[in-house]
Design goal:
Blueprint: E1 2-9, E2 13-20, E3 26-29, H1 35-41, E4 50-52, H2 58-61, H3 64-71, E5 74-78, E6 90-92, E7 97-100, E8 103-109, E9 118-122, E10 127-131, E11 134-135, E12 138-139, H4 147-158, E13 165-168, H5 173-183, H6 188-202, E14 210-211, H7 212-218, H8 220-223, H9 227-239
Parallel strand pairs: 3-4, 4-5, 5-6, 10-13
Antiparallel strand pairs: 1-2, 2-3, 7-8, 8-9, 9-10, 11-12, 13-14
Helix pairs in contact: 5-6
The structure holds zinc ion (ZN) and fe (iii) ion.
Fe (iii) ion binds near residues 57, 60, 132 and 169.
């Protein structure tokens, strides 16, 4: 089983520290910066075994090479994007296994935000690290992929068990919530969620991980009934 620890980076990024309870081996997803990661690692035993990269954007890979050198960590990322990622020690694709100690996971290819985007899903630990594909109450912008690609990727993620903890790449929940409420102002679930989100932010705490079961019932992008609705919603969110 994995413990998950969000590490705030830059303005609104999170890297995710995954700690295998049985072996104390660790993985770090999407490190943009070295110093915040080093500060947490010094409190969790000082070891970093794996760096897992969801996609090539600098706010997800910025400190990968430096941390790999300092800690001797193995860098894992998408084979399809090896040419534009930091130098990979392991290039992976759809269905490939990843292990952090005794916690095993699998790679899911989820194009949309970028064409080479991947997610890491640890079924037994009920952890999904989804980078900039799925956000709490939102989804990633379509920088490279099509609406159709993203819609299919989100459908796959939404089919995972509702107990799954969703570890996203950004703290965008408040703005996503404002957008969702602008389309559906009387939605009782969204209004209840707003209380929780506000309390967390006022206490300086992350709103993540989110619970996939909540996202399935509240995230407008997961609730979109078809591709056309999804594409319109994504375009409206770009202008919001
Ligand atoms: Zn990105
Ligand atoms: Fe990002």
């Amino acid at each position: 089983m994995l413990d998950v620890i969000p590490i705030p980076m830059r303005t609104d990024n999170y890297a995710w520290l995954l700690v295998d309870q049985a072996t104390a081996r660790t993985g770090l997803v999407d490190p943009a910066e070295a110093a915040p990661a080093a500060a947490i690692l010094s409190r969790t035993g000082g070891r970093l075994d794996y760096i897992l990269l969801t996609h090539h954007h600098d706010d997800h890979v910025g400190a990968a090479a430096l941390l790999a050198r300092d800690y001797g960590a193995v860098i894992i990322g998408a084979a399809a994007d090896a040419h534009r990622l930091p130098k990979l020690d392991r290039a992976v694709g759809e269905g490939n296994a990843v292990e952090i100690g005794e916690s095993d996971g699998v790679v899911m290819v989820t194009p949309g935000h970028t064409v080479g985007h991947i997610c890491f899903y640890f079924a037994r630990s009920q952890v999904l690290c989804c980078g900039d594909t799925l956000f709490s109450l939102g989804c990633g912008r379509l920088f490279e992929g099509t609406a159709s690609m993203m819609f299919a990727s989100l459908r796959r993620l939404a089919s995972l068990p509702p107990e799954t903890r969703v570890c996203c790449g950004h703290e965008y929940t408040e703005h996503n919530l404002a957008f969702a409420l602008s389309r559906d102002p009387d939605n009782a679930r969204l209004l209840a969620r707003r209380k929780v989100v506000r309390a967390r932010r006022e206490a300086g705490q992350p709103t993540l991980p989110a619970l996939l079961g909540d996202e399935i019932l509240e995230n407008p992008f997961l609730l979109a009934p078809d591709l056309e609705h999804f594409a319109n919603l994504r375009a409206a969110r770009d202008r919001f």
